[in-house]
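Entry 14. Ran structure prediction on the chain below.
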Amino acid sequence: MRIPAHSVCTAIRDDIVTGVFERGSRLTEEQLARRYGVSRVPVREALRTLESEGFVVTRRHAGAHVAEPTDQEAADLLEIRLLLEPLGAARAAQRRTEAHLKVLRGLVRLGQDRARRGQGEDLRSLGAWFHETLAQACGSPGLTALLTQLRHKTAWMYTVDQPAAPVESWAEHGAIVDAVARGDVERARALTALHAERAAAAHRLRRPERVRTSQHAVNIGSVRN
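Output, structure tokens:
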């Protein structure tokens, strides 16, 4: 079975984000092909994609390496998110489908329930799912891809403290969904801007730290799409 390049790309990206591959470390096609049980062709394609996303840099005569973002680049990343996430919510208010709303409302219900129970780890994954769905609801593949890339890079560069008041945080999520459902573009934009600004305050720069185990294997019977 030929493993798609996008599945290899996902595995490499996630290993970069979680620190399996340290910043500045070299990435060879042979090493990666062996690690994920694939040929060098999808690895080569994946490295090109990751370079365009800013996770990988190619140095002349030295090959591909994990990028080493500066503190200023990390700060710029949060600023870009503060600009684009409200735009995504505004577009979602115009273009969302009933399927998007069903998922968003379900996630809000789950989030509010877990927040009341103090189940923080569940809240982290539910929050990621919520923002991914909201990005998809904007109806613009380019903007969705950019927002997704920004979330991946934020997870790579920052650790995020749990909200001091998770119930209130999920109430904000619910208000955003209500505005999107009503097609209220400006309210969706304003609520998301406020939510994103508060969330940004909980981000702390992640200092590179070695993680020795990978959470991903590509050469398995089913691959992630």
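Confidence is low (pLDDT under 50) at residues 210-216, 219-225. Will compare against last week's run tomorrow.
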